[in-house]
Design goal:
mainly alpha; 2 strands; about 5% strand; rod-shaped; about 140 residues; two-stranded antiparallel ribbon
């Protein structure tokens, strides 16, 4: 069996983590107030109901597409969470980590349908002549 690609591993692990963070976040704050109205949770996370829904949706999507579109998911989440870390409110450290790991996983996974050229380690076999020897007449 072939080992999982970096993007598939990212989609599975980050997706599961985001689902858990989304669920746990609702125990801390379930109010749909403004995006800047955040409550601290678990020491490194700031949440409100909007972020909880974002984490749940993106996490569930990652778990669902881990086997079929993991590279696209890693790239999309990498861009989304990196931009969210730079420009958005909330837990910039967590968002930046999720974003940069997604970009790295997408970069480390070859595109589907592409192939990697392998070096030849052996000399090519020389083909033997298949011509039959001529009959000798007596």
């Amino acid at each position: 069996m072939e080992p999982a690609s970096p993007a598939r591993l990212y989609a599975t692990v980050a997706g599961a983590l985001l689902v858990v963070l989304g669920i746990v976040g609702f125990f801390y704050d379930a109010s749909f107030s403004g995006l800047d109205d955040l409550e601290p949770a678990l020491g490194l996370l700031e949440v409100n109901a909007w972020f909880n829904l974002l984490y749940l949706a993106t996490g569930a999507l990652g778990v669902l597409v881990a086997g079929v579109a993991s590279r696209s998911y890693a790239l999309a989440m990498g861009l989304l969470f990196t931009l969210l870390a730079i420009f958005g409110p909330g837990s910039w450290g967590l968002h930046l980590a999720i974003g940069l790991l997604g970009l790295a996983a997408a970069a480390g996974t070859p595109k589907r349908g592409s192939f990697v050229l392998q070096e030849r380690t052996k000399e090519p076999r020389k083909s033997k002549s298949r011509a039959k020897p001529a009959r000798q007449r007596a």
